[in-house]
Write a structure and sequence with these properties.
Blueprint (H helix, E strand, L loop, with lengths): L5 H12 L4 E9 L9 H16 L2 H12 L3 E8 L2 H4 L8 H15 L3 E8 L6 H15 L4 E9 L3 E3 H17 L6 H4 L1 E5 L20 E8 L1 H9 L7 H30 L3 E8 L9 H8 L9 H19 L8 E2 L7 H9 L4 H7 L7 E7 L4 H18 L3 E8 L7 E5 L3 E4 L9 H4 L4 E2 L9
Parallel strand pairs: 1-2, 2-3, 3-4, 4-6, 7-8, 8-9, 10-11
Antiparallel strand pairs: 1-7, 4-5, 5-14, 6-11, 12-13
Helix pairs in contact: 2-5, 3-10, 5-6, 6-7, 7-15, 9-10, 9-11, 10-12
Length: 455
């Protein structure tokens, strides 16, 4: 006879009902490598067929499992092979047509976002890479669900500064083409160092070269659960005890996420990939990473000690996740997107959280400078400098870092951008006005660090 612990049952119910625990995303990773053709129409037809074949039941089955287990699954997503590879053999490189095909398929399948309008250019460009990158602004402006990413650096290859400069230009164009929507095009574009191919979170998800034909990756989020656990600890408990409590909480969240992911993968008849345990916040009250810092004892995010608190949080989350599952992957850790976190929004509005402080925090967080709004008239060379700084942090520390920055058209410091939903809202933050141009416009490639020679 099985003996149930009613306290554990109640704890799980409270995680969902009171503390915003959810499965943030189930992301079906689909390889499109067999969709190549010299004819663009053939490529688009093959893509549509492939996505219909594997994702036709994704939304329905996810909804069924959500009802069976009473755990919300917030987003249903697809990640595909980097499209620069898929369109490169076409005689006419009409990448925007592929973008619209992906978007239409996502809409017809009921998918929230589709990622993989991507290129990997850390050591240089192919003709297909350049064609795709040039098409990004139009592709994002003419679609609703499409997300794009470009990897410009790795710890092995260094940083492609020509790509950094090109992406600064593309970010500005993407924002300006969607000026009627506060530059939302730039909010769907992320620049990476050390991008991973099994990340289920947008805007950076794509199906990596080493991934199988199809796999189900899951992204679990629970900053509200972690915050509640921290608040229940004696305020005088030392940081070792605090870290252990976070680790125990992450263990429970990860185990629940893997259960849901495996059930859905079985139902779809595809392999289970990874569970990405990322504390991805939302604008909802209580679902904030910044508010975890307050529960730890900081007056607000941005206070001295914030980077140390984030480092401890990120480490404890990963330790708890790895104890719960052998298939923790993706990015896993704590995200700090300004517009998507109620506590971060408040801290930025009051000036507690500065751009420089956010950059320092990216040394220890899960990704990087995320969903930060800056003045629309920020020079491209300044944006290049911002990207280069963040790529350097990733390259030197052998970690994934990213920049998702929004130069909001016609907006100035103190103004707001408002997207609603998971993308939230954010104040326009000031950036350093000193020029970076003579440095970034040298171009070329910043060499890989000495630890890249580790064979």
């Amino acid at each position: 006879m099985t003996i149930f612990d009613e306290n554990l049952i109640l704890e799980t119910i409270n995680m969902v009902k009171l503390h915003n625990f959810d499965i943030r995303t189930v992301t079906l990773s689909v390889s499109l490598r067999d969709c190549l053709s010299e004819q663009i129409n053939t490529v688009c037809d093959k893509i549509k067929y492939k996505l219909d074949k594997y994702a036709a039941n994704l939304v329905q089955y996810a909804n069924d499992i959500e009802n069976d287990y009473s755990i919300p699954i917030v987003n249903k997503r697809i990640a595909v092979t980097p499209i620069s590879l898929i369109g490169e053999s076409c005689t006419e490189k009409e990448y925007v047509k592929i973008a619209k095909t992906l978007d239409d398929s996502a809409k017809n399948l009921g998918i929230d976002f589709i990622g993989g309008y991507s290129a990997l250019v850390e050591k240089g460009f192919t003709q297909g890479d350049l064609a795709l990158i040039e098409s990004i602004p139009e592709a994002l402006a003419s679609t609703e669900r499409l997300c794009s990413s470009v990897n410009v650096g790795t710890s092995k290859a260094g940083i492609n500064m020509d790509a950094v400069n090109k992406m600064a230009e593309i970010i500005k164009k993407s924002a300006n083409l969607t000026s009627d929507k506060d530059g939302i095009g730039a909010a769907k574009l992320v620049i990476f160092c050390n991008a991973v191919g099994d990340n289920p979170f947008m805007a950076g998800a794509f199906c990596g070269y080493g991934e199988p034909e199809c796999a189900l990756n899951i992204g679990v989020s629970g900053p509200g659960v972690v915050r509640a656990a921290v608040m229940n600890i004696d305020k005088k408990a030392d940081l070792g005890i605090l870290s252990n409590k976070i680790k125990q909480t992450a263990y429970k969240i990860t185990g629940t996420g893997e259960l849901i992911g495996r059930k859905l993968a079985d139902k779809l008849g595809v392999p289970f990939g990874v569970v990405d345990l990322s504390l991805a916040p939302t604008p909802a009250v209580g679902d904030s990473v910044a508010q975890i810092f307050q529960a730890m004892g900081l007056e607000h995010a941005g206070a001295h000690g914030t980077t140390a608190a984030l480092a401890m949080l990120n480490d404890a989350v990963k330790k708890g996740g790895i104890m719960a599952s052998s298939y923790v992957g993706g990015l896993s850790g704590a995200f700090i997107p300004v517009s998507e976190d109620a506590g971060m929004i408040e801290a930025a509005k009051h000036g507690y959280l500065t751009f420089d402080k956010l950059e320092a925090m990216t040394c220890v967080c899960s990704v990087g400078l995320d969903m930060i709004a800056i003045p629309g008239d920020t020079p491209e060379t300044t944006i290049s400098g911002i990207i280069a700084d963040e790529m350097a942090i990733g390259m030197i520390n052998k970690k994934t870092t990213a920049v998702r920055i929004i130069p909001a058209p016609n907006k100035h410091v103190g103004d707001m951008i408002v997207y609603g939903g998971l993308l939230g809202e954010a104040p326009i933050m000031p950036v350093n006005t000193l020029s970076s141009s003579d440095f970034v416009l040298r171009g070329g490639r910043i060499p890989a660090p000495i630890h890249s020679l580790n064979n």
